[in-house]
Predict the structure of Short-chain isoprenyl diphosphate synthase.
Amino acid sequence: MSGIMLAMNLSGCSFFVKKDSGNTDIQSVRQESENADKTVMKRSKSEEKEAEEILEICSKTYAKAEKEGKLDDLEMIRDLIKELGEKGFTAVDSENQVNMTEYEKLIQFSEKAEAKKNGRMTVVEVAKGGSCIIRNMETHDGIVNMIRSYCIYENGKLKQSSEDIYRTESWEYTEDGHLMFSGRLAFEGSYEVTRNEIMEYMAYRVLSLDETCRELNRKYILPIGYERNNMFLTDWSEEEFAELDFYDMFDLFYQENHTANGEFTFGNAMGTSAVYLISKEKFEPVIKSKFKISSEVLQSKTVYYPCEEVYEYKPRGLEETEYPEYPYPEVIGYVNNDDGTLTLKVQAVFPYRGVSKAYIHEVTVRDTKDGGIQYVGNRIIEPINNPEIRWHVPRLTRTEWEELYGDN
């Protein structure tokens, strides 16, 4: 979700309804949906008992993890999900790192929703930091309603922090084993911010994913992701770096190694039209730590002043700000190559757009003798075919930058 997190994504400024042929009064739809949800969807006594059991299981695990300083530990989450599964619960983690337990129940529930049959079930989402979400789902006549209870661990207890009741506005179980759904949170409870416009966009990986694929994703792909860089959005290789933006790469990898020093970070000089001259000794090692590239090629792909031996660098400005919703990567396959490199097949899951496969690409990587990672190339296998699925904003060209800031 990163899916992810979770595979969970929240946006505080978006709302959508299913399209119809007439002029829909959105406010009326909101009120009608909210009233319908509150009258139709109620938690049964058996579901209340389930919730008590879930809270007890999670509380014990979180209490132990807190003492050991492991509330953010992946293995703790993995063990907790396993225990919930052994108790018969459908459980998943909020960041899409652990296979869902009792996933067959969710598939059957989705089949009932598609067939317009009646059905109910409970899903538990476990998160880092000692929180979880309990979802009680109900389907009838092809409609899916749910009660979403957000629980947080505080002062040795796991207790409900808020409760949201809503009718899903989209619901799809995809061919590749993802459940995508969304809905407007019509919540019961108090929050420090106004939430009556919040939409929830969800993606569950229902079918199990090979654990090696998950490990490879955590090691090679998730640290890069799809935010403010085009490493995985364009074709490039060590022989031809093409449109790969090395300034975005500098942003990414400089912060990785200099977290305490924010002189060249996004936001530090955003909107100030700042221009830095970074020495060759400082700029090149950041890039060469991740790419097999000569100084000459790097200089040709950037603005370099040979007499001073410095690189010109401009932080991203307001005009280069991206949309706040991003897809997250899933490694779905891999091949060990004869030359010692590794090629990963990756698909971009985009909850905000309700698609489990925004596009597919292959990433080739190389482990170095000193324990580092070199990125060897990227190739788009299945491109983005929906013009509405956009999030990346390239940096301004030199001409565009001069037009905006040249007089400053």
About this structure: Residues 368 and 374 are 7 Å apart (CA to CA). The two ends are 40 Å apart (CA to CA). Confidence is low (pLDDT under 50) at residues 1-39.
